[in-house]
Amino acid sequence: MTxxxxxRPGGPETGPPPPWxxxxxxxxxxxxxxxxxxxxxxxxxxxxxxxxxSRGVIALLEENCTVCMLCARECPDWCIYIESHKETLPxxxxxxxxxxxxxDRFAIxxxxxxxxxxxxEVCPYDALFWSAxxxxxxxxxxxxxxxxxxxxxxxxxxxxxxxxxxxxxxxREAQAAGPGTGPAG
Length: 185
Hints:
By secondary structure, the protein is of the alpha+beta class. It has 4 helices and 7 strands. 10% of the residues are buried.
């Protein structure tokens, strides 16, 4: 017998899948549809269930962004949109004027993002960070494109970095700088 569709492990599909049930359902609780029929076991997570430095949403520290475009170039999903313009800075007393990039738009389309973290890792200026926030419900996919104002708001939810190991040796840079440059203590 030939089928155009795959069968469920328990037999042929007899109707539509059970609907998604909004709201929190405790772990292991069996949800029910509108007819009272048991549905799938739904395990929802809250922020308390996640590790302190887990991935959620990407936050932007705009002051650190130099518009180098590394994050956008390395993104496998091409979900980062950056626009900028060049601005000429006046020359200090003697010298030539400098040109720098000014950020006009920085947006991430979270409907395309696969949360791989490559953009956070390749940013040489620490402008992108992981925030532990993971619940940002939107009415449609257009609301999942977060512009730089919204990405800046996520910075308040970025956890502080873990403390340095007290017994760890100084980094090579601090050792090369000489005595008195290490951490106070």
